[in-house]
Amino acid sequence: MCSKETAMTEKPDFMKGIFIPPQPRIIDDVREASPDLVKIAELISKDAGISANVLRTVNSPAYNLPNKISSISQAVMLLGLDAVVNIINGLMIRVAFEKYDTEPLIEFWKLNEDIALASAILAKRLDLAPSEDAYLLGLFHACGIPAMRIKFPQYMSSLKEAFEQSGLSPSVYLDNLMNTNHGVVGFWIAKTWNLPSNVCNAIRDHIDRSWVDHRDTETDGLLICLKLAQRVCNSHIRLMGADENAHWPFVKEVILTELGMSDLDWEDLSHEIADQLHS
Q1: 168: number of Cβ within 10 Å
Q2: H/E element, 190
Q3: Would you give per-residue pLDDT tens digits along the chain (279 residues)?
Q4: What is the rounded CA–CA span in Å between residue 62 and residue 135?
Q5: What is the distance between the alpha carbons of residues 245 and 163, in angstroms, rounded to a whole number?
Q6: CA quadruple 36, 41, 44, 45: dihedral sign
Q7: d(CA 279, CA 271)
Q8: Nearest CA-CA partner of 50 in 21, 22, 20, 79
Q9: Which of 130, 159, 139, 167 is nearest to 57 (CA)?
Q10: Are 139 and 90 in contact (CB under 8 A)?
Q11: Which of 108, 120, 171, 242 could join 246 in a cystine, given CB atoms 3.0 to 4.6 angstroms apart?
Q12: Distances 159 to 32, 96, 172, 274 between C-alpha atoms, Å
């Protein structure tokens, strides 16, 4: 069984045979071009897919800009280096699994985008975490799932079982079955891609229900944003067809108490965020 301590140091033996994609060269190229925003814009403009994603993101509800941005140069100036790198990472992680991609993963990547946007909006609204980190966590929190599906074709059905049973934390349930889970695998992908340590650790912990009892100031705000965003986006239904209440009751009380929210407050906010996502 894996542990947080194991997941934070050297890559353990049980990770052997699990595909961990390398970070693409363009991330290093963009960072090396900093702080020359003109050169960064030129690098991005060379790739139509990246350019489209940058423009789509900067014009999304997460940024809520009064006017539409149509040029990469404008987008880079508005977003800044970290946000641009986050967007590129989000596209590249999807590309990294393309040769393994199947029809169900189309909805998977769309769901992650929705969760990322909702997480960023919530981070700003509730002042819980940097919105760039919340966005990045939303994009990458489930990135271990495609890697687990490659090695364990039955992983999605096992994941559904893990969330619908109530005796164990989903992470422990999956550890017992497979000696790891997509949170730990996602941690290693994020670490390989040089994501911030707080985002890596939140990826590791996001399916571990024990985080509500063992709070960590580095990741608490990020995890709260993620859990709220997952709820807004009906993630458990969309991802694996699990009951919508498969996970929320285990974290709801702690989160709403932390935020000083009533059920009615949360219901109003969740509808508002959902409307903003689809505006």
Answers
A1: 13
A2: helix 182-192
A3: 444 544 455 666 667 778 888 888 888 888 888 888 889 899 889 888 888 888 888 888 777 778 888 889 888 888 888 888 888 888 888 888 877 765 567 788 888 989 999 999 999 999 999 988 999 999 999 999 999 998 898 998 999 889 888 788 899 999 999 999 999 999 999 999 989 999 999 999 999 887 766 666 778 899 999 999 999 988 766 666 666 666 788 888 889 998 999 999 999 999 999 988 876
A4: 9
A5: 9
A6: negative
A7: 12
A8: 79
A9: 139
A10: yes
A11: 242
A12: 39, 22, 11, 25
Per the CB < 8 A criterion, the answer to whether 150 and 105 are in contact is no
Q: Which residue has the tokens 């590249």?
A: 92
Report the interhelical angle of 48-58 vs 72-79 (nearest 10°).
50
Side-chain half-sphere of 70: how many Cα atoms within 13 Å? 2
Backbone conformation region of residue 68, classed left if phi is above 0, alpha if psi is from -120 to 50, else beta: beta
Residue 35: asked if its preceding bond is cis (omega within 30°), the reply is yes
Name the DSSP letter for residue 234.
Answer: T
Residues 6+ apart with CB under 8 A from 53: 87, 88, 90, 91
How far apart CA 114 and CA 229 sit, in angstroms, is 8
* Residue 116 identity: A
- Number of C-alpha atoms within 13 angstroms, CB side, residue 100? 17
Question: ∠ CA 264-141-193 to the nearest 5 degrees?
Answer: 150
Amino acid sitting at position 150 = I
Distance between CA atoms of 122 and 273, rounded to whole angstroms?
A: 8
Contacts of 19 (CB under 8 A, 6+ apart): 100, 147, 150, 151
165, 146, 131: which is closest to 239 by C-alpha?
146
